């Protein structure tokens, strides 16, 4: 995930890390204006629902958030631009860690599986709303296609991904005429 200070979040729910311990079932829910702003940011037609049920646990200056994200949104088909309804209900896990300057800007950094779930923060507040929004962004399929995609490809004279595969030349091979 990226640094949450890079822009002004549309869906901000700051939490003081000193208040994060034992916050069981902390529910964050985006209102209509926040959902509209996030839909514009992520290139979606609209977001009808976005919420998360999280449990926060603090360990020194690190805060872990575990729970579920739920969203209902409309996304345009990558080929035909038709509206496709998508429902999301997935587990969430991320860790907020204090920002550090442990490496030079051009230095390569080795990441392990847990590093990918970490979000840097500075000061004494974390933004769980922005973390939920970023989790939604990561779950969006940028190449989502709907039932009209094949006919839109044919109408535009575009081949299907299957036509371009290494096995396309074998299509029909061995079939009796």
Q: What keywords describe this structure?
A:
single chain, 177 residues, alpha+beta, 5-stranded mixed β-sheet, two-stranded antiparallel ribbon, 3 helices, 35% strand, elongated
Produce a short descriptive summary.
The protein has helices at residues 32-42, 128-139, 149-156; strands at residues 14-16, 23-29, 46-59, 62-76, 83-98, 118-121, 125-127. The chain has 177 residues and is α+β, with helices and mostly antiparallel strands.
Explain what this protein looks like in three dimensions.
The protein is α+β, with helices and mostly antiparallel strands and about 180 residues long. The protein has one domain (about 5-105, about 110-145). Helix content is about 20%, strand content about 35%. It has three helices and seven strands. The chain has helices at about 30-40, 130-140, 150-155, and strands spanning about 15, 25-30, 45-60, 60-75, 85-100, 120, 125. The strands form two sheets. It has a five-stranded mixed beta sheet with strand order 2-3-4-5-6, covered by helices on one side. A two-stranded antiparallel ribbon has the order 1-7. It starts with 13 loop residues before the first strand and ends in a 21-residue tail after the last helix. Mean pLDDT is about 80; it is low at about 1-5.
């Amino acid at each position: 995930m990226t640094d949450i200070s890079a822009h002004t979040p549309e869906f901000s729910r700051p939490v003081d890390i000193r208040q994060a311990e034992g916050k069981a079932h902390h529910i964050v829910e985006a209102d209509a204006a926040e959902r509209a702003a996030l839909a514009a940011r992520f290139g979606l037609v609209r977001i009808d629902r976005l919420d998360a049920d999280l449990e926060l646990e603090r360990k020194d200056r690190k805060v872990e958030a575990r729970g579920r994200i739920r969203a209902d949104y409309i996304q345009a088909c990558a080929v035909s631009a038709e509206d496709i309804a998508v429902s999301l209900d997935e587990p969430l896990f991320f860790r907020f860690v204090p920002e550090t300057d442990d490496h030079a800007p051009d230095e390569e950094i080795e990441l392990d599986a847990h590093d990918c779930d970490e979000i840097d923060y500075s000061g004494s507040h974390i933004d769980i709303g922005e973390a939920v929004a970023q989790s939604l962004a990561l779950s969006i399929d940028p190449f989502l296609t709907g039932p009209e995609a094949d006919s839109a490809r044919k109408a535009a004279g575009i081949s299907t991904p299957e036509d371009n595969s290494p096995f396309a030349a074998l299509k029909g091979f061995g079939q009796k005429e």
